[in-house]
Design a protein that fits this description.
This protein starts with 14 loop residues before the first strand and ends in a 16-residue tail after the last strand. It has one domain: Glycosidases (TIM Barrel, Alpha-Beta Barrel). It contains five helices and nine strands. Helix 3 packs parallel to helix 4. The protein has an eight-stranded mixed barrel. By secondary structure, the protein is of the alpha/beta class. One of its GO terms (molecular function) is lysozyme activity. Pfam families: Glyco_hydro_25 (PF01183). Belongs to the glycosyl hydrolase 25 family.
């Protein structure tokens, strides 16, 4: 089904954004006044040593605005998973009422290495073994539709149990009781008060129960 319009609040009442330093200075109070910004997933780290320069500020100001937060890590194929987990542990604070740590796993913006399914699964498992010492919750794995088809579909058992954050810009993905996806990124060119320039837009699966209780803490 080709989608010509963004998902409505009636169909998907919990909507949100994901941001990084590319969004510059964000007015979080203005964002919080908009019903389509119930949550924000904020870039924290990449690889084994990169830390997003806006993460600490965005993390703090999103909380002050009453927006439910999560942090994400961009997973590189050219560093050991355990090294990358240490970067996350040194950067992301452990706080109540936040979304599980998200892991962005994709080819775009990554290094030149193309791992096999087994290589990727081994490094993701090593990453999660290290991370769960502080963040034991089931993680969120962000993937594009082609990446999902190549590495995850039918092979989910190779990876740690996870929520799926699926990027699908051209069409609405199939959703049956929040399977296979929990979060759907439906646009990368959203325009919102409080952010100059485009921003990624997302929705939470309408029947999800794992996350929905977190949004009761948002200030409205």
């Amino acid at each position: 089904m080709i989608r010509f319009n963004h998902p409505s609040l009636e169909d998907y009442p919990i909507q949100g954004i994901d941001v990084s330093h590319h969004q510059g200075d964000i007015d979080w109070q203005r964002l919080a006044a908009q019903p389509k910004v119930r949550f924000a997933i904020i870039k924290a780290t990449e690889g084994g040593d990169f830390r997003d320069r806006k993460f600490a500020e965005n993390w703090r100001r999103a909380a002050e605005a009453g927006i439910v937060r999560g942090a994400y890590h961009f997973f590189t194929f050219c560093r050991p998973g355990r090294d990358q987990a240490q970067n996350v542990l040194a950067t992301v604070p452990r706080e109540p009422g936040t979304l599980p740590v998200a892991v962005d796993i994709e080819f775009h913006g990554n290094c030149d290495k193309v791992p096999t399914v087994e290589e990727l699964a081994n490094e993701i498992n090593a990453f999660m073994d290290e991370l769960k010492t502080v963040f034991p919750e089931k993680p969120i794995f962000y993937v594009t539709q082609p990446f999902y088809e190549q590495y995850f579909k039918g092979r989910e058992g190779l990876y740690p149990d996870h929520h799926l954050w699926l990027r699908s810009i051209a069409e609405e993905p199939v959703e049956e009781a929040c399977r296979p996806w929990t979060i759907w990124q439906f646009a990368d060119n959203g325009m919102l008060d409080g952010i100059e320039g485009p921003v990624d837009l997302n929705v939470l699966c309408r029947s999800d129960t794992a996350f929905s209780d977190l949004f009761s803490i948002a200030v409205r």
